[in-house]
Amino acid sequence: MLKQILTSTLAATALLISQQALSAPQDPINLDQLLKQLQQGQFEQTEENKQREARFRAEANEQERILREAIAERDRLEKLSETLETNFEKNEIELAGLTDTLTQRMGSLRELFGVLQQVAGDTSSKLQTSFVSVEFPGRSEQLSDLAQKMGSSSKLASIEEIESVWLALLQEMAESGKVSQFDTEVTLANGEKVTKQVTRVGTFNMVADGQYLELVPGTDTVAELIRQPSGRYLDTVTALEQADENPVKFAMDPTGGSILGLLVQAPDLGERIDQGGTVGYIILALGVIGLLIAVERFITLTLMGGKVKRQMKQTEAREDNPLGRVMAVQRKYPDVDTETLELKLSEAILREVPKIQRNLTFIKIISVVAPLMGLLGTVTGMINTFQAITLFGTGDPKLMAGGISQALVTTVLGLVVAIPMTLLFATLNTRSRNIVHVLQEQASGIIAERSERSH
């Protein structure tokens, strides 16, 4: 023990000497001064230790006070926990009893409210896709909130909420048989939003400015169909908007838009022709050329036939028609014998035949080539279809639609061109043959007349 005290004293002395040496340098001291400094340093250290002990006792008392407060708070919370547990058990027992009482009192009403929740949800979904909601917005949200409230909690619906479902169904039924007009915002095909007067036909269709409208899913707004049906349906829209009290015809979609969606997807005439591809356009070009030739031949043969009929009533030969030019041969060779005159008339008729039957062969060729080119397009389209099947399989019909369309459209175009060309060729060929027959008949009469005079 003495050894530890001596060691502590020497350490404190060394520390004090080092601090004094650092603070201010002094002259060398003797043993008396050293002893005095050691005594003074020991006194200061004792005072510091006393202060530390006092501070420790004060802090120990504070820690004991905090500990006592924590113990008291723990005891209070334990008592509160026991009280809450007791109340919770009592509440559970009471809630179970009330639940049983509610179940017994509700009886079949629980099934009724379940059906009400289902009807409210189904009606809300139906009203979201109904054109009537555009005129009376907010109906579907009210029923949807009612269905969610009844499904997420045990709260019962009030009389007013039950009546709201019933009134919504009655309103939908009543409005399904009305044609009404009202103003609302319409989204045009170019994305612009404008306010228009809209005509609603029950729950089936809505139209505005001669265009069919569609309901934007999930909202109570409408928009113009980007692609409208054919003109014969749009004419009924105009008639409906301009109608008075008298009945008018209107192309109504009883499915609420399904049939109309299929109609607008159907390709028009230009798109069908485009499906035929290059072969289809070549067939149409041949058909146009043949039609122009047929029109020219029809006009020419009609005028020529009229002139021939007028020439038959005259004795003087005219050079503006084939019969007049054939009759002029008789006047040109008045003294030749019958056989020579017959040959000269045959020569004149042969000169007129190419003029009468000009380009008719080309029409016949078109009537034969057009279906063959249609068959070519059919084969080409089927080749494309089989290639698509080889690469992608038969899972997606759209991949095969292009080849099948070309296969069918080119056949149709070939027949569309060939049938009229065949009829035109038959008609024009008959007209030309009639004119040639008149020339041959008149030539035979001239020969017979010359033969009688010679005899």
UniProtKB/TrEMBL annotation:
Which positions make up the signal peptide?
1-23
Predominant cellular place of this UniProt entry's protein: membrane
Q: What keywords appear on the UniProt entry?
A: Cell membrane, Coiled coil, Membrane, Protein transport, Signal, Transmembrane, Transmembrane helix, Transport
In this entry, which stretches build a coiled coil?
53-94
Which GO biological-process labels does this protein carry?
protein import
Membrane topology label: Multi-pass membrane protein
Q: What is this protein called?
A: Energy transducer TonB
